[in-house]
Amino acid sequence: MEKENATLLMELILTGLTHEPRWKIPLFLMFLVFYLLTIVGNLGLIALIWNDPQLHIPMYLFLGSLAFVDAWLSSTVTPKMLVSFFAKSKTISLSECMIQFFSFAISATTECFLLATMAYDRYVAICKPLTYPVIMSNTLCIRLILLSFLGGLLHAIIHSSFLFRLTFCNSIIVHHFYCDIIPLFKISCTDPSINYLMVFIFSGSIQVFTILTVLVSYTLVLFTILRKKSLQGIKKAFSTCGAHLFSVSLYYGPLLFMYVRPRSAQADDQDMMDSLFYTVIIPVLNPMIYSLRNKKVIDSMRKMLKRHA
After folding, report:
1. What number of other Cβ atoms are within 10 A of residue 146's Cβ?
2. Distance of alpha carbon 267 from alpha carbon 50, whole angstroms
3. Which of 304, 296, 308, 301 is nearest to 56 (CA)?
4. Burial class of residue 88 (count of CB atoms within 10 Å of its CB; 0-12, 13-18, 19+)
């Protein structure tokens, strides 16, 4: 009877970031600015790459895909968070909660795969420059992008499917600002041990695989650069790869801390801070990290501004 009643529970309550009234307006304005910058920066970068034929090469196709995923990831989480600052009711239907998590899981996982493919692209460009156009053709680039999205979709389907085995009867209060999987496990009245195992296996495997791809790619890049012993070549290579390494470091730190650490070490406030970093902060930083240090992007931007001046 208890299980039957639990399945009838169709609404949850998201606590949000703060209960302090004095912080609501400053936080709302700050995250609104972040969100607007995220959308303008990422969609602007996509438009720039789309309109400039010189940027229709693998490196920038990957960058455009990353910008799309960042805009998607932020749009999955931030609007709902902004509304919750002033909403009288912080309830979210169970179906809406599942959809939000599904969208988040696709975009976050796809970003992991895209960061790995971008590292491989830089490895081929620097370590095999003569055969780069043959190895990294636009056809292969598009296939890698599609596989990244497919990987994100399959990963989201796995965890969403296992979420449907859970029931919520002990509490409907989710201590988070969006429907993430770990906070949902914590309020389940069904034993979530299998779900935790699935997260550890699949999320852990994806993160280990993509991080190893990045590390191996850049280790080989480093050895190639050091063998050349050319100061100009070293500066150019580090300029090309530095932004990507910085972005990868920022993105993977919170993800590893969130999903691959022991269950007992998880704290609600720390989880929210980690989630805030890779769902709100990283998407607004990526366009600046990649654009401001990229000569071709800056030149393309100048040309576009002159045409519309």
Report:
1. 11
2. 43
3. 296
4. exposed
Q: Spell out the per-residue pLDDT of the chain, length 309, in tens.
A: 444 444 456 788 888 887 777 888 999 999 999 999 999 999 999 999 998 888 889 989 999 999 999 999 999 999 999 988 888 778 888 889 999 999 999 999 999 999 999 999 989 988 898 899 999 998 999 999 999 999 999 999 999 999 988 888 767 888 888 898 888 888 888 889 999 999 989 988 998 899 899 889 988 888 887 776 666 666 666 666 766 777 777 777 666 666 555 554 455 666 777 788 888 888 998 888 877 767 788 888 888 777 766
How do the domains of the chain map onto residue ranges?
2-307
> pTM (2 decimals)?
0.88
**Top-level CATH class of 2-307?**
mainly alpha
Instruction: Measure the N-to-C terminal CA separation of the chain; round to a whole number of Å.
Output: 70
